[in-house]
UniProtKB/TrEMBL annotation:
This is FkbM family methyltransferase. Keywords: Methyltransferase, Transferase. Pfam families: Methyltransf_21 (PF05050). Residues 47-224 form the Methyltransferase FkbM domain. InterPro entries: FkbM_mtfrase (IPR006342), SAM-dependent_MTases_sf (IPR029063). It comes from the Bacteria. One of its GO terms (biological process) is methylation. It comes from Rhabdonatronobacter sediminivivens. Residues 1-23 have a biased composition (Basic and acidic residues). Signal peptide: none annotated.
Amino acid sequence: MTGFADSRKNRPADTRSPSKETDASAPSALDVAIASLATRGKLRFVQVGANDGKLEDPIHHHVLAHGAEALLIEPQPWLIAALRDNYAAFRGKLMIENIAIGPDHGTLSLHTLKRAFWDDYTARDGRSPTILFSPDRDLLRRRIARRMKVDIDEAERRLDTIDVPMAPLSDVLARHGMTDIDVLQVDCEGWDVKVILSLGEVRPAVIHFESLSLSDADRQAFSDWSRQNGYGCIQGWKDTLAIRGLSHPA
């Protein structure tokens, strides 16, 4: 399927001073974009950072409703069984990869909260500790300190590290024959742009990713890439929606 064409002016990805949406009952821009694509037929979804398939997941219901194929990529090995279970109702072609996505082939060191502190984290923050999984150790250390109300040194003590096989997204897509995809969803705790830049020649119609924790360099890299490849962007307080075919301001 092809991307959108629209004459509206849309600014490129920019996370400066975003504001939170206030009407939780209203459909999001992502919901509208996917629903629009789905009027043309079943869709091909790719998700990087799929977690368990439901936790804070903006596309799970869309995959079940509109998916012909879904490639779900999650580097945390302890989540793969739950991920598969949470897509048991999916009637399309389901592919799951336990791998990290990055610029090269090799190994990626990913940091997480030690299991001994999982219950305490959930009690304090109300969320699953499996959302704390990132190659950015400093980002994770600051989040743990803030959410668990401990100092930075104690947050550092609570970190664990695992090494995960890594490959560019372009190679994983090629392995599964997913070179023409409709929706790419990315949530990789500050690593999102590196995932997108590893697409190679693949250009999804819609890309949705968490942009709240991006470095300035990654923000600029995505802004440049999106302009060069014909994407217009809608900026939320936490996420960016990029749609191919939307026009940028002159």
